[in-house]
């Protein structure tokens, strides 16, 4: 019998950051070699893996995603747990006795081809790299593999500290906020510090930009947030008046439409201030994430599946302020992301002491499995 706790611990002991997830990739492949998926894609979008049960891509396909990368400080976000949950789901889907429950003729002889011969649905499991940098889901989509299947729903989860262990946390619309880092480069002209009037110093413009951006927070009745990250003006050369500055913010909103408005307002403000101070300006977006906007019917399906496990369900009316690149899938397919409580006393995500609770592996996999078989009922 597979020891999923041991698998999770081995993944935890071999954390690899975005773009370097070879240990996780190889662990997934070894596990799938013990099962009977009809198709396995390796090295998708880097170190991603996709396994499919079902031979006809035109059939409706229910998809499930887990992220597999770690932080530079290790698996302090729980992706080792998410990975393991999907490995357990693979076994559940592959298990002949559980497959039998999806067919009315439960007394029929079961062989290794039963599932694909008698199921009207495909099941696609996706282990995704590079979530932390917001690039993994786009790399998966750009591979074109998902578009080969008729995906009727895609589901993902993330453990959430602060909620009772195993509580399913649902957001009726947006699960996680849109966000992006933005760097504004302001160029003037250096001059001797004794004659600053002969140069163009960006310092006052930077100060004005910082004040203007503070006014963006929660304006116009919609959640929007601007967080100052870093400021650079000039160099530590006391004989020279500064001629270059950079100011960096993280922008955040709860919907994709509001995020577009916020970026427009931010850029317009910087352009106006820079022009008034006779500066040229350029900008760079860093790790942009779209809002994870759920499909209402899929949220209801998660609630029903959770009750069948059974797991307690709690609705969280305000989206999570952090971001998730699962959003990219929801721009192309209907689906939903949900949270599962990892304990009220658990340190927050990305805390150096965070560790995914093994007790979540089985109930979370069972919830996913009930979402899968629910489409056959």
Report on this model:
This protein is 31% helix and 27% strand. It has an 8-stranded mixed beta sheet with strand order 1-2-4-3-5-16-6-15, sandwiched between helices. Strand 1 and strand 2 form a beta hairpin. The longest helix is centred in the last third of the chain and has 21 residues. The radius of gyration is 24 Å and the shape is elongated. About 4% of the residues have low confidence.
Topology overview:
Layout: H1 4-13, H2 22-32, E1 39-44, E2 48-53, E3 60-67, H3 79-94, H4 96-100, H5 114-118, E4 122-128, H6 136-142, E5 150-160, E6 168-170, E7 174-176, E8 178-187, E9 191-192, H7 203-214, E10 224-233, E11 240-241, E12 244-253, H8 256-276, E13 280-289, E14 292-293, H9 296-308, E15 313-315, H10 327-330, E16 335-341, H11 361-374
Parallel strand pairs: 3-4, 3-5, 5-16, 6-15
Antiparallel strand pairs: 1-2, 2-4, 6-16, 7-14, 8-12, 8-13, 9-11, 10-12
Helix pairs in contact: 1-3, 2-3, 3-11, 7-8, 9-11
- In CATH, the architecture of the largest domain is 3-Layer(aba) Sandwich
CATH topology of the largest domain: Aminopeptidase
Indicate how many domains the architecture comprises.
2
- Low-confidence region ranges: 104-118
């Amino acid at each position: 019998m597979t020891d999923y706790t041991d698998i999770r611990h081995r993944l935890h002991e071999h954390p690899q950051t975005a773009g370097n997830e070879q240990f996780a990739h190889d662990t997934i492949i070894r596990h799938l070699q013990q099962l009977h998926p009809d198709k396995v894609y390796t090295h998708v979008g880097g170190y991603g893996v996709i396994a499919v049960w079902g031979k006809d891509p035109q059939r409706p396909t229910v998809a499930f995603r887990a992220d597999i990368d770690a932080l530079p400080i290790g698996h302090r976000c729980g992706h080792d747990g998410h990975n393991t949950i999907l490995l357990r789901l693979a076994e559940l889907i592959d298990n002949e006795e559980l497959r039998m429950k999806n067919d009315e003729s439960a007394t029929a002889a079961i062989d290794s081809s039963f599932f694909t011969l008698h199921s009207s649905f495909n099941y696609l499991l996706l282990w995704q790299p590079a979530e932390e940098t917001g690039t993994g889901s786009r790399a998966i989509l750009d591979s074109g593999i998902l578009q080969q299947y008729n995906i009727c729903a895609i589901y993902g989860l993330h453990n959430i500290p602060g909620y009772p262990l195993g509580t399913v946390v649902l957001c009726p619309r947006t699960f996680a906020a849109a966000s992006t880092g933005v760097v504004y480069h302001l160029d003037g002209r250096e001059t001797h510090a004794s004659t600053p009037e002969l140069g163009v110093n960006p310092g006052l413009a930077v100060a004005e930009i910082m004040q203007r951006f503070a006014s963006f927070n929660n304006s116009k009745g919609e959640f929007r947030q601007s967080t100052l990250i870093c400021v650079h003006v000039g160099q530590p050369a006391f004989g020279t008046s500064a001629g270059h500055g950079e100011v960096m913010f993280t922008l955040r909103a709860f919907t994709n439409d509001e995020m577009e408005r916020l970026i427009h307002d931010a850029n317009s403000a910087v352009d106006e201030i820079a022009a008034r101070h006779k500066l040229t300006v350029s900008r760079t977006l860093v790790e942009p994430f779209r809002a994870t906007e759920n499909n209402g019917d899929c949220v209801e399906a998660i609630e029903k599946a959770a009750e069948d496990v059974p797991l307690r369900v709690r609705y969280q009316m305000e989206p999570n302020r952090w971001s998730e690149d699962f959003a990219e899938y929801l721009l192309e397919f209907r689906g939903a992301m949900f949270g599962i409580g990892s304990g009220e006393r658990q340190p927050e995500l990305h805390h150096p002491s965070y560790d995914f609770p093994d007790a979540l592996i089985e109930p979370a996999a069972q919830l996913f499995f009930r979402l899968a078989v629910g489409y056959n009922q």
